[in-house]
Amino acid sequence: MKLGIFGGTFNPIHLGHLLIAEAAAEALELDRVIFIPSATPPHKRPRVLADARHRLRMVKLAIHGNPRFGCSDIEVRRGGPSYSVETLRQLRHAMPRAKFYFLIGADSLRELHKWREAAELARLCEFICVARPGERTPPARLRGLRVHKLPGHPADISSSDIRNRLASGASVRYLVPDAVRRYIQKTGLYR
Question: CATH number for the domain including 162?
Answer without folding.
Answer: 3.40.50.620
